[in-house]
Amino acid sequence: MNREILISVDHVFRYYGGDCAVNDVSFTVHRGEVLGFLGPNGAGKSTTMQMICGVLSPSAGQITVAGHDMLDSPRAAKQHIGFLPEQPPLYQDLNVDEYLCYAARLRGIKKAELKDAVTYSKQRCGLDETGKRLIKNLSKGYKQRVGIAQAIIHSPAVVIMDEPTSGLDPNQILEIRELISELGNDHSVILSTHILPEVQSVCDRVLIIHQGRLVLDESLDKLQQDDQIRPLKIALRQPPPLEVLGEIEGVVNIEQTGNHHFKIHCQSGIGTINRITKLAVESEWELYEIIPEQDSLEETFVQLTRGEISE
Amino acid sequence: MKTISHIATHELKRLFISPLAWILFAVVQFLLAIFFLLILGQFVDPAAASLFANYGVTEIVVVGLLQIAGIILLLITPFVTMHTFSEERQSGSIKLLLSSPVSITELVLGKYLGVVSYLFLLLGLIALMPLSLLMGTELDLLQLLAALIGLVLLTSSFAAIGIFVSSLTSQSAVAAIGTFGILFVLWIMNMVGNTGTELFREILTYGSLLNHYHHLLDGIFNSADVIYYLLVSSLFIILSIWRLDNERLY
């Protein structure tokens, strides 16, 4: 990839007292990339994001944003960052316009450009009508939008969002996802979430972090390509011996999970499934369930984040 | 520099949006008005005339009033400063500040300026009371000026201490009570000194916030007193900056 590197995280550690929250994490983000940051609760996602934004300092390691070191020249580095923490950093007693103006001023937007910046970011986040409303009176979804508006007001190169869709209703989630995809066109986006379909719908690349360590850094396309073998759950009322099923062309591995239930790992593609169903009908196995099990990302996620990491 | 003024304006604006700022204005004016009336009443009472024979109206009424104003400011400053960092931390909005291209120094100075501007407005209102005496009598304006400078310096150091305590906790109430405790100890420190050795007493008396204010109230403009207050303010501002800087590490 020859695109410009906007964020580089280099062997970063972070300790809270004696606990290691982030353990030797390194990755880079390129311009225009949407990066999904996955991990179970307490894996170190928020800590990593806060370190990239300069809210926390790493205990060891280096973070550079757009070529500026976060420790040596924080001002230059933070200029390129828009951050939406897990809880939107709002002032409840201000109205949306006042709040966005302040956020813009903090980010160094000049007075002449202030109005345009506020209008533009309100428009992008669907806040046109809410400018004069007090933030504390807004619904959760709108507060989240104000949070996003604040993060993009200075058109930063990188927008970092910590669980931007948590606590929203399904419609709002869709809208926010659309917004994120849109942002991905001209900003780099890092977004943490524990909703896997979200990553699949908006991200180009996936990072999985588990117990403070980076366990996966892969592009989504690659992940889906890798997935030659898909698990399939079937249930038969009159099951044949296991070997019979194993001999079907395309079946790689088979295990019995219950009296009538089987888990089959088979080559992807419709062929194998067709053969199984056809054979089931011909041999009167009484097939009553056939479920392609879990999507690839979920499978990967579960595999990588189950259990302890051995030292 | 610009960032500092943005933060200061924002702080001031948020103070005035909340009812707290207005209620403090009202309560302080009300309390001081009562004291003003009492002291003035005593001063003009013919029966007590012999008591004040050697003193003028400035020394009795103005100084008396401003002395009480100092105590009232000690009581209310914690309520003005308690929000500065505690609330930001509690609501998470501090992350907006920390992820913005703003240095901690600018942040603390901005907050400090915002709070101090509010308190100075309050002082302006307080100053109107003794000034109203000009309608009926002559005042020692220079002594009044020295006393007001003293009050300004005193309030500035209160605010710095309050901001520091607020930077230590995420609970406003804790910040307020903590600030109050520290201010009160610094205020009455010289009383404790009565029991100790000469040196101990000297140090405690010199360290007391009250002591230096008294000089200025008496119209003695001693640069050492002024520097004392400036040092106290700077010390606590620097401590707040350190504290917030370190917070990112631990």
Explain what this protein looks like in three dimensions.
- The complex is a heterodimer of chains A (311) and B (250).
- Chain A has helices at 45-52, 74-78, 96-106, 111-124, 140-152, 170-186, 196-202, 220-226, 242-246, 270-282, 296-305, and strands at 5-16, 19-30, 34-38, 60-65, 68-69, 81-84, 158-162, 188-193, 205-210, 213-219, 229-236, 251-256, 261-267, 287-292.
- By secondary structure, chain A is α/β, with parallel strands linked by helices.
- A six-stranded mixed sheet of chain A has the order 6-7-8-3-9-10, sandwiched between helices. In chain A, strands 2-1-4-5 form a four-stranded antiparallel sheet.
- In chain A, strand 1 and strand 2 (19-30) form a beta hairpin.
- In chain A, helix 3 packs across helix 4, helix 3 (96-106) packs parallel to helix 5 and helix 4 packs across helix 5.
- The longest helix of chain A has 17 residues, at 170-186.
- The radius of gyration of chain A is 24 Å and the shape is elongated.
- Chain B has 250 residues and is mainly alpha-helical.
- Helix content of chain B is 81%, strand content 0%.
- Chain B has eleven helices and no strands.
- Chain B has helices at residues 2-17, 19-44, 57-81, 83-91, 94-98, 104-131, 141-168, 172-192, 198-207, 209-217, 223-247.
- In chain B, helix 2 packs parallel to helix 6 (104-131), helix 6 runs antiparallel to helix 11 and helix 7 packs antiparallel against helix 10.
- The longest helix of chain B is centred in the middle third of the chain and has 28 residues, at 104-131.
- The A-B interface holds A 16-17, 50, 53-57, 59, 74-76, 78-79, 81, 83, 85-94, 98, 102-103, 105-108, 150 and B 3, 6-7, 10, 13-14, 17-18, 91-103, 248-250.
